[in-house]
Each structure stands twice: as structure tokens, then as C-alpha cells.
Amino acid sequence: MENQLQNTELNPENQEQINPDTIFFKGKMVSTATLLQDYDNLLSQANKKQKERDRAVIKRKQEQALKPYQAELIKMQDYLEETKQRMIILFDGRDAAGKGGTIRRVVRYMNEKRYRIVALGKPTEAQQTQWYYQKYVSHFPKGGEVVLFDRSWYNRAMVEKVFGFCTEQEYQTFMEGVNDFEKDLIRQGTFLIKLYFSVHKDEQARRFERRKADPLRQWKLSEIDLQAQDHWDDFTDVKYDMLRLTNTNTAPWFIIRSNDKFKARLNCMKVILNAVPYKRLNESLDFVPDPKFVISGARELEIMKAEYIKNGKAIHR
What we know:
Layout: H1 2-10, E1 22-25, E2 28-31, H2 32-83, E3 86-93, H3 99-107, E4 115-118, H4 125-128, H5 134-137, E5 146-150, H6 159-163, H7 168-187, E6 190-198, H8 201-213, H9 223-228, H10 232-246, E7 253-257, H11 261-274, E8 294-296, H12 297-311
């Protein structure tokens, strides 16, 4: 057969019989278009697998880069246990900003007997009749313990305010009293760290789409999440008011830029470690937060105010 094909190709009289759209392949005539499509599919699959391998390698390197700081967090935990001091860390911010993922990295190697993660749901009827802080106070740490709030009492200043889940009087009462509440916590020996995770609007939308498409992530989506994009500017406005009224010298806010999840997690750990005067395990580590990813509450206010003046609203905040 091969000789016949060769003779056909070499014989000028048979050139008209050659079909450029087919080729003899593995014992049969096959469309060249089919072969090219198969090749493109194989190439696409190979590229996809290579990208997956590249992402896995990057993720592995990032997880390794966090480990020295996770070891420091264990050392910090030991200090709190030895001194019987308490720590409360507030993880607040926009939906899909990376709060939960950061919390998991912070506690990954910590002694699970000495920390708790608190993520409160919708208040019960009984809780609605109680002092607002009561449902949070019941989860406060004992000596030597760390409590991490995945959303905190600042829900009243953010979600409840935007969606009308509290009255204007309840909102005003909270904003007028929260600084004294936190000041008293700190005065009585509690380390209080307030973290606000800030993600861009388009990045938030991308993360929402990923959650919708991934069955393993769909549980993360709530009715509030689905409305977050529509209320973007509303959340920006209440964030500005929250920082303006509750960023104090005693209990300052740390704004974590979280478009890059790894950088957000790394710098969040640095903020936490810098809050406690424990004896460091490795003094050669870089404990200075990157100013591109950690912004003081005061600086964030300056940035937002300038954007309000220039654009009439704060961009990407």
C-alpha cells in the first residue's frame, strides 16, 4: 500500500487523484481536519495538566514559606499559656475576601486545645433580646487561650447596617459604645487584634463564580453573598464610617489587602506575631508586614477620603 501511495505521489498523471483533505493513517484514510483537531485536543489537555502541575508547585512553595511563621505562632501560643494571657483576633471584611482560608492557615499547627474558631450564625430569638455583645462574650478566651472570630461584633457596623438587620438606633448605640467595650477588654489584659480583609470588586466576583461552579465550594455561598456585588458601594460607605469611628490608638484596625491570598495570609501572621512580646523562635525571619498588603486603619481612611473627594466614591475598597 505504501508503494502504491508513493507511486501515486510520484506519478504526475495521478496528481488529480490526490485528496489533500485526507491522509492514510494507521491503516485507513483519515481526514486531516480530524487529525488536526485530535492534535489540538491533546495539546490543550497537555497544557491544562502542565498548568495544574505549575499551580501545585506554586501552592506547595507557598505553604512551605508559611511554615516558619506557623512555628512562631506555636511559640506565641506557649507564651500565652505560660503567662495566662488571653488573645482575641477579629477577622472582618467583605465576603470572599479570604478570612476563612487565612484562619485555617493561622491555626493549622497550633495546639487545638488552646484555640477556638467562632463563626456565629443568625441570632436566635433569645439572643435578639439580650445585650448585643452577650453572644460574643460567651465565647471569650480563658487565660492562655486564643479565640479567632470569623466575623465579629462588627457585623452590626457592616452587614446588619447595609441590609437593615438592625435599627438605626441599635447601630448608633453600637458605634458609640464599641470603643469603650474594647478599651475595657484590653485594660483587663486581653490582646485584641482587629483585621479587615479588603478585596477588589472584580476579584470578589471571580471568587463568587468559582464557588458557584465548584460543588465543593458551593456551601460557602449565602443569600448575603449573592447580593454583595449589588451592595458594593453601600459596604464601602459603612466601612469608611466604621474605620472613622472605631480605629483607635488602643484598638487600631489593620487592613489586609487580600487579592493575593498567599500574601494576605503571610502578612496577617506577621501582624499577629508582632502583637505579642514572646521570645521568637527564629530572629532571622522577616517579621515586618509588607506595606503593599497591610495598611493601617488611619492610612486607609486617608486613601478612602481622597478617593471620595476625587471620584465621589472609594474605588476598590
